[in-house]
Amino acid sequence: MPFPSPGHPAVEAYLTEGYDSVVGMSSRFAASICARLLRLQTEEGVSGPIAEIGAFEGRFFIALAHALDPGEVALGIDIFEWPDAGVKDRFEANCLKHGIAPERRVTIKADAGAMAPADLLKHAGGKTLRLIHIDGEHSRAALTKDLALATACLADGGLLVLDDMLHPGYPTLMVTVQNYLEAHPEIVPLCIIDRETIVAATKFVLCQRSWFERYQTRMLEIFKEQLWPLGADFEPHWCMVLALDTRLAAIT
């Protein structure tokens, strides 16, 4: 099954020529889909900055930043201490090497879970965020805090992208997501981006309920070659599943 077009020549070039050279575990399939979702937002009149919680060395961050319109900025948030103190310098160097100039990004060395929404919005120039990718500490407590921060800073029409969902190494994160969805009925799953491997794991994309039909209508056409036929049942909410392998199990 082919990868979907990311909808941006700069993203396409980076995914083809540079993505695998940046240390990280994020899926190229997911990066292509999220870049295309940013273009879809632009087409639907949603604009503004984006943020990644857990930027690490910049693999996924660079793809997202290339998908932004002129004047929009990407915020990279990380404690930048793991696996060593040089990770922040490598993040900055990777951004420069792959075409994300300093004026197009803001590097924030901080624990996102300890940030107040006002602090994050200040870094974003007072603007709410149209996409927030959460790939921070993989614990229930940390994800709960990151979701609270992201929800408070999300723009109308914004998207929350959650990394390493359904990962066998972090099985309890789904409990946090389910608790969050029950506490925030205004937010629903928009799609699941299936894994490439155990390392390049599944992502959930969430949106405001008021935007679900609007986005879904467009996405069913944009990603028609990547649609897994049965979709995902969140009881009672249904959303699409985007996958490289869209086969159903054979019944014999």
What attributes does this structure have?
single chain, 252 residues, alpha/beta, Rossmann fold, nine-stranded mixed β-sheet, globular
Would you give an account of this structure?
The protein starts with 8 loop residues before the first helix and ends in a 10-residue tail after the last strand. It has a single domain (9-242), classed as Rossmann fold. The protein contains 8 helices and 9 strands. A hairpin with a 4-residue loop joins strand 8 (227-233) and strand 9. 35% of the residues lie in helices and 23% in strands. A 9-stranded mixed beta sheet has the order 3-2-1-4-5-7-6-9-8, with helices on both faces. It is globular. By secondary structure, the chain is α/β, with parallel strands linked by helices. It comes from Bosea caraganae. Keywords: Methyltransferase, Transferase. This is Class I SAM-dependent methyltransferase.
Which word captures the global form?
globular
Low-confidence residue ranges: none
How many domains, as an integer? 1
**Count the helices. How many?**
8
- The SSE string, one letter per element, is HHEHEHEHEHEHEEHEE
Relative strand content: 15-25%
Give the helix proportion (percent range).
25-40%
Indicate the structural class.
alpha/beta
Tell me the distance between the termini.
24 Å
Question: Widest sheet: strand order?
Answer: 3-2-1-4-5-7-6-9-8
- What CATH architecture would you give? 3-Layer(aba) Sandwich
GO biological process, one term: methylation
Keywords: Methyltransferase, Transferase
Organism: Bosea caraganae
GO molecular function: methyltransferase activity
